């Protein structure tokens, strides 16, 4: 039996979106192109974002599950604050406030740090309506998508 790649209309649209994101040009279904969104910066992230995710905490050869949800406010100038609830290995903790800082490069990639101890790489929608991030600290495995709920 031969291995074949099957392309569906959805996968072709996704491929076009990825290509548009990497080239900075958006192509409509009619074939006309439009200018790319302006470059990203700190002000791209401004407002309240909602998040929920899960993952694992790794220690030696053992792992324990974790889950989290909350909201955070980005001020458009590199500061963030938020509140979250967590469940770490079946131990819940509710309404925990946090603060942090963030950076955003013109290519819409960036980083943020919470409480000086949790570190993340992030990749933004050029309009700042959503972003994805992955925790970069050894011993934690999690990735999350955040969506803007308000612009203030």
Describe this structure in words.
There is one protein chain. This protein has 152 residues and is mainly beta. The chain has two domains: 1-36, no CATH class; 42-150, Quinohemoprotein amine dehydrogenase alpha subunit, domain 2 (Lipocalin, Beta Barrel). 10% of the residues lie in helices and 57% in strands. The chain has one helix at 9-23, and strands at 26-27, 33-34, 46-59, 62-75, 79-88, 91-104, 109-114, 118-124, 130-135, 140-150. The strands form two sheets. Strands 3-4-5-6-7-8-9-10 form an eight-stranded antiparallel β-barrel. A two-stranded antiparallel ribbon has the order 1-2. The longest helix is centred in the N-terminal third of the chain and has 15 residues, at 9-23.
Features:
152 residues, mainly beta, Lipocalin, 8-stranded antiparallel beta barrel, 10% helix, signal, TAT_signal
Secondary structure layout:
Blueprint: H1 9-23, E1 26-27, E2 33-34, E3 46-59, E4 62-75, E5 79-88, E6 91-104, E7 109-114, E8 118-124, E9 130-135, E10 140-150
Antiparallel strand pairs: 1-2, 3-4, 3-10, 4-5, 5-6, 6-7, 7-8, 8-9, 9-10
* Poorly predicted runs of 5 or more residues: 1-30
Task: Report the sheet with the most strands, covering strand number, pairing sense and barrel closure.
Answer: 8 strands, antiparallel, barrel
Gyration radius, rounded = 18 Å
Q: How much beta, percentage-wise?
A: over 45%
Question: What's the order of the H and E elements?
Answer: HEEEEEEEEEE
Number of contiguous helices: 1
Mean pLDDT: 83
Under the CATH scheme, which class of the largest domain? Mainly Beta
Query: By CATH's scheme, which homologous superfamily of the largest domain applies?
Result: Quinohemoprotein amine dehydrogenase alpha subunit, domain 2
